Amino acid sequence: MPALFGTDGIRGSFGKYPITEQFFTQCAHLIEQFFKKILKKSVLKIAIGRDTRESGKVLQDALIHGFSDDTCVLDCGILPTPGVSVVVDHQKCDLGFAITASHNPYTDNGLKIFNSRGEKLSADLELQLEQFLASNPLTIQDMSEDRHVHDVTDFQAQARQIFIDRFDDIKFRFELPVVLDTANGATTYTSPDILQKYCKNLYIVSNHPDGRNINFNCGSEHIERLQTEVKNRHAHIGIAHDGDGDRLIMVDENARCLNGDQIIGIIANYLKQKHLLTNNIVVVTKQSNCGLDESLKKIGIHTVRTDVGDRNVYYNMVQCGSVLGGEESGHIILRKQAHTGDAISAAILVLKIISEAGSSLSKLANTIRLFPKKMVNLSVGTKIPIEEFTDLARLLQNFENSNYGYKRSLIRYSGTENKLRILVEADTITNADNLSNRIRDCLIKEFEKRKIFVK
């Protein structure tokens, strides 16, 4: 069996392995067996939610068909991924499943798995599960055709209410206009109800999901529509989610886009001022802009870097006792609110910060100076270990010792494609362009002298 789990669960094109009805049924049966053994339980309680993709209900039915007759299933219907996490914890479930492909187009789908605390599976446990699935092949013929899960509860209304009610203790009122883009996704049915409590003037766009328009020219991955709406409505803030509600990107009153790093910086500064930033530590990934580290260091906040993925961020937060972490992409974890990226929790906190400060999002963002960056991809025939590129090492050392404005670089292979990704940060965009081009040219020569395809 090929590797199933990527950075964030299982994902792929619907109708192609592993995102098929047959595989979801087989997978559910084996996952249930695995966790019964791990948890030493004969019956499991499971929560299942999905986003708005047209394939979601089909895959959910297939998943449920794979469980034992006595399994207790809470059908949470369409619910943001952080909502599934919250319901699992609140209802004392043994497992949770979010059927979603996050920010991907509607033609994709996937599966995210949560443990009994509403946390994504640790890397070690996920590896054990993958090995179990690989060593226990199961065909659909092995399963009785009349299998039926009798204890399926329609929990959609209750699940949404549990997710919404988390914010009842937060008190403030935001008087200025706000535009919300729900990406025609799962947050269409939760975020408007939550934000109406706090926003005097709330305008909602991309909130008519039809199964195929999730993330289509909208949401956190396509911010242009939100920027236009903020301008046209003279709004003070724009809030964008992705299809399953675990990413947040914001737009200020000038229609300027703020990424996850800037939002994390604003929140970190606020929490430190309120003496709520445990250990004065924020966890980010290798992709985060080094300007965030420098900005936070000036106010006494230490950043810890980890591999890409909000699961990695979360478990590093637990390890170092941090309450705040996230990614440039907009995954932001407020560990006292949720155990995974949670767009609406972060959005509410930013609104509260602005309201208390009597300031604007642009002014707060200006306190976090990010460096210009340039990203370049190279297609390669073979993935040669980067440490073998001695000319590259000398070039980077030269950058370090020069006054080219070089800040840092991150050179890594894609986990899913034969591509080498080059990220360079510098003091100006011109320097970032020049430095990234020099690294690219150096790498091309490294591959060519080994007679390996590169483009």
Oligomer: single chain
For the termini, the CA-CA separation is 31 Å
List low-confidence stretches: none
Strand content: 15-25%
Query: Count of helical segments?
Result: 14
CA radius of gyration: 23 Å
Mean pLDDT score, rounded? Answer: 94
**How many E strands?**
18
Structural class per helix/strand content?
alpha/beta
Shape: globular
| Biggest sheet layout | 6 strands, mixed
- Strand numbers in spatial order across the main sheet: 1-5-4-2-3-6
Helical amount: 25-40%
What does this structure look like?
The longest helix is centred in the last third of the chain and has 20 residues, at 429-448. 36% of the residues lie in helices and 20% in strands. It has 14 helices and 18 strands. A six-stranded mixed β-sheet has the order 1-5-4-2-3-6, sandwiched between helices. Strands 8-7-9-10-11 form a five-stranded mixed β-sheet. Strands 13-12-14-15 form a four-stranded mixed β-sheet, sandwiched between helices. Helix 1 (21-39) packs across helix 2 (56-65), helix 3 (81-90) crosses helix 5 and helix 8 (260-273) packs across helix 11 (343-357). The protein has helices at residues 21-39, 56-65, 81-90, 123-135, 156-165, 191-196, 224-232, 260-273, 290-297, 310-320, 343-357, 361-365, 390-401, 429-448; strands spanning 10-13, 45-50, 72-78, 95-99, 108-114, 151-154, 178-181, 202-205, 237-241, 248-251, 257-258, 281-285, 302-306, 324-326, 332-334, 373-379, 406-413, 419-426.
